[in-house]
Amino acid sequence: MNTNQDVYILAIDGPVGSGKGTIGQMIAKHYGWHYLDSGALYRAFSYAADQNGISSVDDQALRELINTLDIMFIPTEDGGAAIQINGEDVTDKVRHEDAGKLASEYAGKPVVREILFDLQKRAARAPGLVADGRDMGSVVFPQADLKIFLTASAKSRAQRRYKQLKLKGFDVNLTRLVEDIELRDQQDATRTHSPLVPAADAIVLDTTSMNIEQVFEKIVSLIDK
Ligand code: DC
Prior knowledge:
By secondary structure, the protein is of the alpha/beta class. Helices cover 49% and strands 17% of the residues. It has helices at residues 20-31, 38-51, 59-66, 91-95, 97-106, 110-121, 136-140, 154-167, 174-190, 212-224; strands spanning 8-13, 34-37, 71-75, 81-85, 88-89, 128-133, 146-151, 203-206. Helix 1 (20-31) crosses helix 10 and helix 5 packs parallel to helix 9 (174-190). The structure holds 2'-deoxycytidine-5'-monophosphate. 2'-deoxycytidine-5'-monophosphate (DC) is lined by residues 16, 38-40, 42-43, 100, 103-104, 107, 133-135, 184, 188.
């Protein structure tokens, strides 16, 4: 249980396309809470490492890299956030599926998880935080007031993600997307460090046959309880 009564922490974990980003932002807006998109942090850091030619096994260079980076999330009108690294707008590059794959690779390295741990912890500010990711409830915020693990079939997650990326103007191929999602699921769930697994005290919600509003109502009712 969260001992800091001034900050309510909601942890939402789940695989790619489970809807945690959309739902997380809706909940944060509803209660006036902060929102942590930890996946975007992993993406931005991995993108920067790749751009600097630093491999995922070069612990020393990765540690030095974080000290040279100013990663900023700037809220946008649609409820999302633009991403800047050292003043450069990298939103589209970081949101691209290629950056997701890179992030999944770097995120498997303990040094990367350690480097980003404190940054994530610092996001817990009053009056509340919605933390979205893979290990929010299990590792980063084990004291969260409520832990939700969102999931859905790989096919419906690929379809949701397809629509989302199309709307953002990305050129996507559904068959490739299903393959990428299955590969990332497997990589994220089987890694040794902080694998994607529901925390023991998480409430698992399978959203395959639920719409966004139903998921939102369900989580709000759990918080208000
Ligand atoms: O949520 P996302 O697709 O933006 O995340 C990109 C990758 O980052 C994901 O495949 C695994 C990694 N990640 C992680 O390991 N831990 C988190 N808390 C968030 C993301």
